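Progress note, sequence design subtask.
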C-alpha cells in the first residue's frame, strides 16, 4: 500500500437471533466483549475497528470480532442474522437495551423500531478540512451508488417489501434536509442552529447518508463517515466498496476543480441536495436498476451504468495505488446482483424468508473460514 493511502475504520452493526426470530442479548455481549457496544434496541450490537491503512489488516479487524461473537452465540444456539432490517416475524415493541439512557428514551419515544436496523458505517481519515468537506460533497453526491452495491434489506416482519433497502427507506433521516456544506464554518453554524432549535437533540443526532466525524464534533474533525450502506456480510465486498470510495477521494485530491461538486456541477448547491435525496430514495427502492440523476450534468443514468463508468474512471488511480484487485467483488455484484436482488430472486422462486436467511447464514459462516 502507498503511504498516501487513507486511514479507514468501520462501525459494524449486527442483528442477533435464531434461525427464525430476532433475539436481543446485547447487554450480555457488551459485558463479555470489550470491543462490542449496545445499540438502543436490544436486538442490535455494534463493534468498531481501529483505523488502518492496509486492507489485509482491515480484513482481520473486521472478521475477528465477528468470529469471536459467533463462537459465543453458538453456545446459546443463537447466530448473526445478515439482514439489515428485522426480517423475521417480530413484535413491533421497541426493546430497550439501556433503561437508564435518556438519549435512548428519546429515540424510543420519537422513532420506535424504525431505527432497529443494521448497517456498516465506513470512516476514512482526512485531516485537511478543505479537502474533507470537498470529499463529503463528492461522496454524498454518489452515496446512492454505495447503497446500491450494499443493499441487503428487502424483507420486514416476515414479508417482502417493495424496496431493496427497506432499511434506508424507513430510517428517520435527521434533520430531514441537509445542505451541502461549503466549508467547516458553514457546518458548525448549521449544527449549532439545529441543536438550538431542537431539530437535533445533540451532535450524535445527525443521521444522514454522510457526515463529518472526529474527536470533538463539530469543531475538531478528522474523517468522513459514510452511513448509507446496508450491512455487508461479505467482507471482501465491504473492502471493495471501501476501496472504491478511497480511490474516488484520492482521485478528487488530484482533480479538485473538476470533481468537487461545488465547482464542477451544473446545479446549484440547493438543487444538488435535492438530487442526492431523490437518488438515495430511488436507490433504496431499486438499487442497481434505479434511475438516478448525475450530479455533474443533471442527466438521468441507470445506477449500474454509473458504477461501471466510475470504475473505468478509477482504473488508472487503482493501478497506481496497487488497489485494482480490491475492486473485483464490485464487478461480481454488477454481474450477479447485490444481496437483496439474490434474496428477492430466491423468494420469487418459492423459498420462505426463513429458508433464505438460513442459506445466507451458512454462506456467512463459510466465508468466515476463508482468507482474503
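Output:
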Amino acid at each position: 500500500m502507498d503511504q498516501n493511502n487513507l486511514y479507514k475504520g468501520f462501525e459494524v452493526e449486527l442483528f442477533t437471533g435464531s434461525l427464525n426470530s430476532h433475539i436481543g442479548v446485547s447487554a450480555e455481549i457488551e459485558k463479555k466483549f470489550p470491543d462490542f457496544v449496545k445499540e438502543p434496541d436490544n436486538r442490535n450490537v455494534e463493534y468498531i475497528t481501529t483505523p488502518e491503512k492496509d486492507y489485509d489488516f482491515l480484513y482481520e479487524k473486521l472478521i475477528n470480532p465477528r468470529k469471536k461473537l459467533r463462537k459465543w452465540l453458538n453456545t446459546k444456539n443463537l447466530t448473526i442474522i445478515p439482514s439489515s432490517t428485522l426480517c423475521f416475524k417480530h413484535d413491533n415493541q421497541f426493546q430497550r437495551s439501556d433503561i437508564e439512557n435518556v438519549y435512548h428514551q428519546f429515540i424510543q419515544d420519537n422513532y420506535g423500531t424504525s431505527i432497529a436496523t443494521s448497517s456498516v458505517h465506513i470512516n476514512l481519515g482526512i485531516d485537511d478540512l478543505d479537502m474533507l468537506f470537498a470529499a463529503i460533497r463528492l461522496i454524498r453526491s454518489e452515496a446512492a451508488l454505495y447503497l446500491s452495491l450494499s443493499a441487503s434489506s428487502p424483507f420486514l416482519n416476515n414479508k417482502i417489501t417493495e424496496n431493496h433497502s427497506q432499511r434506508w427507506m424507513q430510517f428517520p433521516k435527521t434533520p430531514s434536509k441537509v445542505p451541502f456544506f461549503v466549508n467547516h464554518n458553514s457546518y458548525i453554524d448549521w449544527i449549532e442552529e439545529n441543536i438550538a432549535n431542537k431539530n437535533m437533540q445533540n451532535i450524535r443526532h445527525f443521521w444522514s447518508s454522510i457526515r463529518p466525524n472526529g474527536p470533538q464534533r463539530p469543531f475538531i474533525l478528522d474523517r468522513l463517515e459514510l452511513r448509507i450502506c446496508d450491512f455487508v456480510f461479505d467482507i471482501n465486498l465491504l473492502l471493495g466498496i471501501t476501496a472504491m470510495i478511497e480511490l474516488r477521494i484520492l482521485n478528487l485530491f488530484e482533480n479538485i476543480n473538476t470533481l468537487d461538486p461545488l465547482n464542477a456541477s451544473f446545479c446549484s448547491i440547493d438543487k444538488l441536495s435535492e438530487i442526492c435525496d431523490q437518488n438515495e430514495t430511488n436507490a433504496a427502492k431499486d438499487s442497481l436498476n434505479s434511475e438516478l440523476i448525475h450530479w455533474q450534468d443533471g442527466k438521468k443514468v441507470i445506477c449500474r451504468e454509473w458504477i461501471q463508468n466510475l470504475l473505468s474512471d478509477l482504473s488508472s488511480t487503482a493501478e497506481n495505488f496497487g488497489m485494482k484487485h480490491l475492486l473485483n467483488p464490485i464487478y461480481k455484484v454488477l454481474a450477479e446482483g447485490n444481496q437483496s436482488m439474490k434474496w428477492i430472486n430466491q423468494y420469487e422462486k418459492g423459498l420462505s424468508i426463513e429458508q433464505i436467511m438460513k442459506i445466507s447464514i451458512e454462506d456467512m459462516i463459510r466465508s468466515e473460514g476463508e482468507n482474503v
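The first strand starts at residue 8 and ends at 17. Work on this subtask will continue into the next period as scheduled.
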